[in-house]
Structure formats: structure tokens, C-alpha cells
Amino acid sequence: MSAVPFDRSRVTIVILARNEAHSIGDAIADASGWCREVLVMDGKSADGTADVARRSGPRVVTDDGRGKGAAIRQSLGLVDTEFVVFMDADGSHDAHDTPRLVGPLADGTADLCVGSRFAGGSDELSVSIAQLVRTVGNILMNIAINKRWHVELTDTLNGFRAVRRDAALHVNLKEVAHTIEQEMVMKFLRHGMKVVNAPTHEYKRRFGESHIRIWREWPRFVWCVIENIAAPNVPLDKAKAEPSQQVIAGIAE
Ligand SMILES: Nc1nc2c(ncn2[C@@H]2O[C@H](COP(=O)(O)OP(=O)(O)O)[C@@H](O)[C@H]2O)c(=O)[nH]1
Ligand SMILES: [Mg+2]
Prior knowledge:
The chain is built from 11 helices and 7 strands.
């Protein structure tokens, strides 16, 4: 546990939601006690998710619907707290874990803290062939990332994570889809920043199905790893001196 007491006024929780009308209300209620502000990014939902979310009170922004990565990048330009926690709207994440994720950022030992399902457990890691493929892919990616940057990460794909907002704005994220999770980890490492895991439990999504179409999307996952592993590291000072205005505006390509 962090030596610095948890201070919710330093945290925004961004809830990513696309067609999650059945669970968005509970996710907002869950998140509200753990942050200064909840921001819901609605991916052009067709099931009334945005209306349901607005009735619960938080700010709701409809993103361009291109994908989770585009929504995450856009959200970084819309919030102003030091730390940002990203959370699913499907019931898979428990906002009570927020202090665990934010702790390493607050005490200065990390810039990005990713929830680890391998340490905290998951109800979803291998319930279907597609999930199993994702799990095996995650493990292989962890091995590649750990070897390349001499770290010991156990989960690099979990969307439940806390990030220093200014750091995220400096690494020039460009992924549009779910590949943003691995891109974020690798770009932080390439820029000499510290990435750690904290155990969080993943619950089974409460309604509907995952939006990840792994049979169609796996080449992009693989290419994103190759691209970043092959790219040179960037000195931290240089990265800090070159904030990406495109990312701030949420329109990076
Ligand atoms: N704002 C936004 N949210 C999205 C988009 N695609 C997926 N999500 C949300 O991101 C979260 C991750 O869920 P999902 O895509 O099903 O992946 P999984 O939970 O890892 O299987 C869910 O709450 C989705 O509703 C999108 O294009 N825009
Ligand atoms: Mg989920």
C-alpha cells in the first residue's frame, strides 16, 4: 500500500461505454465515491447509454465512435486532475480498487499503474476460445515487453489502470482501438517512465459481449507490439519538451 493517503480530489475516473445501458448506472454509482469527477465517454451508443448515464449526473461526452483508443485519447484532453483512472462500463472493474491503482502514482514510484488480473484474479480469462487467445496473447506480450525493457509486468492489456495525465499527454498515443492499452505501456517504457502492476480482480461482464473481435483484430495487436518494441527509446527530457497538441485535442492519427 502507498505511504501517501488516498486523495480522491486528485483523481478523475473515465468510464468507457459503448452500448452499456444495462450496467452504466451501476458503474457510475460505483466510481463516484472514488474521485473528484466521473467522465463517461460514450462511443456513439445505439442503446441509450448516454441518456442513462446523464440521469446519474456525471459529465457525458460522446466520442467519435471510432474505438476505445480514440475515446481514451480524447478524454485526456477533457479532464484536469493529476491522475486519471480508466474503467470499463460493463461491470468488470471494481472502483474500490482505485486507491491501489493510484497509490504508486501518488507516492511517485510510478507513472502508469495497470491492474493485474494474474495477481488479482479474473472471472473471464479463459471462459471461451476467444478469451483464451487473448490471455495467451497477453502472456506472450508481457514476456516480450519484460525482456525488451527489463521490467516484470504480469498484465499489460488490462484496461483498468491509473495514469499520470501529463505523462499520458506526452507520449503521443495514436492507437484507435483496444491496442491503446499495450501502446500506452510500451510508450511509457520507451520514454523512460515507470510502469507497474497492482492486483485487481476482473469480474465477468454483466450484460452483452466484448467489443473486441480478436479474430479480426489480432494482426493489429501483433503489429503494435512489433512497432513499439523495434522503435528506439526516447529520452524523457525530449519527450517532456514535445507535448503532442494533437493528442491534447484528441485527434491524433
Ligand atoms: N467510449 C467508447 N467505449 C468503448 C468503445 N469500444 C468499447 N468501449 C467500452 O470499453 C470497455 C471495454 O469493453 P470491451 O470493448 O467489451 O472489451 P473487454 O471488456 O476487454 O472485453 C467497455 O465498457 C466498452 O463499452 C468505443 O468505441 N468508445
Ligand atoms: Mg470489460
